[in-house]
């Protein structure tokens, strides 16, 4: 019975560079009869699809939702009930700001088999590939991940007063348009305006752009460079170490944008 209903693999496709994906994820793509993929998934990964595989783009770009989440949930259920092997490809890791859990709940309601294939999340990989370690001995022993966007009906909030001084490295996903608010809240809660920060756009990819400054300067720098999403915003002393640790390619990307 279960098998007739097909199976959904909720697959983390990694941060961008098509080589930064797991073997297990590739196997799921190769075996899939249907692939549903998001905006941030590298399209080169679709080359692993077998012949005849149905490939469906369900991505959203910023706030222009190409597909409402409910419709994606429904599609997964429909394909699952039709007995298909489905790979649901998501950028980074499916459970880090990826709504993977919501999709699974829908599948469970219909007794559709699923598996979770974790991926390399952008919040660690994007700074890392640019030479910024999210933790560093004697410099940063804690790191936390935040979403810069909160939906209108959100039931959680960011405790700015606690995080501003209580955590060493702060990593914001979806933080470009909200950067002024993030910076304002952190400084209002006691974060030093001199704290080193970086905005990294399209990290791990050839088109990567890196902006480095301080909490106090980054918003103006972003305006000057007309800096656009998608980017990871990283706040903390670790950013200062990137000069020593970043590979040459990233230094070139930086000078390009200046
Ligand atoms: N599940 C994903 C995150 C989805 S939220 C993960 O685990 O990585 C989408 C946000 O991730 C983007 O707005 C951006 O902040 C970040 N992001 C994803 N890929 C990125 C990349 N290559 N470079 C910079 N930021 C990226």
From TrEMBL:
Record Gene3D superfamilies: Cobalt-precorrin-4 Transmethylase, Domain 1, Methyltransferase, Cobalt-precorrin-4 Transmethylase, Domain 2
Keywords: Methyltransferase, Porphyrin biosynthesis, S-adenosyl-L-methionine, Transferase
Span of domain Tetrapyrrole methylase: 7-218
EC number: 2.1.1.107
InterPro entries the record matches: 4pyrrol_Mease (IPR000878), 4pyrrol_Methylase_sf (IPR035996), 4pyrrole_Mease_sub1 (IPR014777), 4pyrrole_Mease_sub2 (IPR014776), CobA/CysG_C (IPR006366), Siro_Cobalamin_biosynth (IPR050161), Uropor_MeTrfase_CS (IPR003043)
Record-linked NCBIfam families: cobA_cysG_Cterm (TIGR01469), PRK06136.1 (NF004790)
Protein name: uroporphyrinogen-III C-methyltransferase
PROSITE patterns recorded: SUMT_1 (PS00839)
GO biological process: methylation
